Amino acid sequence: MKDHVKSTSCETFVEVEREINRYIRYYCHHRYQWGLKKMTPVQYRNHLLSAA
Fold this sequence. Notes:
By secondary structure, the chain is mainly α. The chain is about 55% helix and about 0% strand. The chain has 2 helices and no strands. The radius of gyration is 14 Å and the shape is elongated.
């Protein structure tokens, strides 16, 4: 995560927090992962819950 969050441009803690939340939202909702059958973590979780 430290390589993907642009914290050097942030001047306050609130801005750093916003960047971290932005990355977490991207990682969970938009980044497809090969280990999860090319689904995002949220899609994979919903897939597992619907199969149960």
